[in-house]
Design brief:
Radius of gyration: 20 Å
CATH superfamily of the largest domain: P-loop containing nucleotide triphosphate hydrolases
Strand order of the largest sheet: 3-2-4-1-5-6
Shape: globular
Oligomer: single chain
CATH architecture of the largest domain: 3-Layer(aba) Sandwich
Helix content: 40-55%
Strand content: 5-15%
């Protein structure tokens, strides 16, 4: 007999779209627990800048995989998938509904497609050479090289994602197999989940941007400046430098710009990040879109989400 698949509710979408609230309320109503799918919320001490839900926002629902990694410690997609998988199995074993929620599309896709990660030998010398070349010639030169043997990866990877770009070239040179082919092979195993993928969007992008601007204002009121100063002063400050909301404050701490200018930069970079998130999620064939601005009342959005759940998860 084939093994019964685990029902899994997924709530994705761009930052400030309301996915945290929707996931918590659906989990509360349907005897569920939330598993975070956010690559920055995993770190300890970065509560405000990564918009970790407050105890009030959690609604008494258990939330997993948040604030458990020390800043500066290496944590890969493979690490996340292994931990999320075991967490989901444990939640399911207690008769609860696992609710995966977050905006890191790579985490979500890798988990629900059951991507298999294999250990591939690294070449530190090659990696250092590519890093130096990127510094001297720019990431575009690496992107051009990658396009010569793996055009799909070259189109998928942004030049700013230098670690991923370097890894794609290293993978090919070490194994002779492209990253695209590695990904294809890694997704041959069937998924252990019977998933319903809800994705929040906006017909009017400006309404999402307004929400982002308001959220950043609220972050400043809650003490983002103090949190950023503390994180950036730590030896592991490089982790905070990866997250929007921290590195943009560095020029302010150096007295190079005003606090208002720093805030406006954070708002702009967050809007750009939300746009990239939407681009990613649009490629997800499983996603069932709910456009927040089509529902005058929150209860209407919640009801629409429950209706899709009923069809997809057969509850």
């Amino acid at each position: 007999m084939p093994e019964e698949k685990i029902p899994l509710l997924v709530v994705g979408g761009p930052t400030a779209s309301g996915k945290t609230r929707l996931a918590a309320e659906l989990a509360l109503r349907h005897n569920g627990e939330v598993v975070s799918a956010d690559s920055m919320q995993i770190y300890r001490g970065m509560e405000i800048g990564t918009a970790k839900p407050t105890p009030e926002e959690m609604l008494g629902v258990p939330h997993h995989l948040m604030g458990f990694v020390e800043p500066g410690k290496s944590f890969s997609v493979a690490d996340y998938v292994a931990l999320a998988k075991s967490t989901i199995e444990e939640i399911h074993s207690r008769g609860k509904l696992p609710v995966l929620a977050g905006g890191t599309g790579l985490y979500i896709r890798s988990l629900i497609t059951n991507t298999q990660f294999t250990e591939v030998d690294n070449d530190p010398n090659l990696r250092a050479q590519l890093q130096k070349r990127a510094e001297q010639e720019g990431a575009e030169s690496l992107l051009q090289e990658l396009a010569e043997f793996d055009s799909e990866s070259a189109q998928r990877i942004e030049p700013r994602n230098l670690p991923r770009l370097i890894r794609a070239i290293e993978l090919y040179r070490v194994t002779g197999v492209t990253m695209t082919e590695h990904l294809r092979r890694s997704r041959l195993a069937p998924s252990p989940y019977h998933s319903c993928f809800l994705c929040l969007g906006f017909r009017d992008r400006e309404k999402l941007y307004e929400r982002i601007n308001l959220r950043v204002d609220e972050m400043f009121e809650r003490g983002l400046v103090e949190e950023a100063k503390q994180m950036l002063d730590m030896p592991s400050g490089a982790t905070a430098m990866q997250a929007i909301g921290y590195k943009e404050l560095l020029p302010y701490f150096r007295s190079e710009i005003t606090l208002l200018q720093a805030k406006e930069t954070i708002q702009r970079e967050t809007r750009r990040y939300a746009k990239r998130q939407l681009t990613w999620f649009r490629r997800e064939e499983q996603a069932r879109w709910l456009y927040v601005d089509e529902y005058p009342q929150w209860e209407e959005l919640f009801t629409a989400a429950e209706e899709i759940m009923g069809r997809e998860l057969h509850e």
